[in-house]
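Write out this protein's structure.
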Amino acid sequence: MERLREKLDLPRGHYYLHVAVLAGLPVSLISDLASELERSPAQIAQWITASPGSAVMSIQAGEVFCRLIEILDALLELYDGDLGGALHWLTAPNVVLSNERPVEGVWGATERKVHLSPA
């Protein structure tokens, strides 16, 4: 089974991926991922907090996008390629997470750090 990272032609290796994120990942990757997941680009953009109307993702959105890809690849491996099962786990409320959906936690910890850090 081909991993999402490979299907989306993301750079191999953490260093090269980090450099690509700093340069700005193309927003077109959101549509590509949406097509792979059979979801709307608007939903993917909401998940990663990407701003519409830009040619490239912000550094924060790029980092969240890469984190989402890593999580999805791990879930697809866990669920033997079952996209429905992987997406259900990602989007359903989870008791262990205080009924928060895991997809909300992809960026939630980062946002909480920003809001809770002293000025």
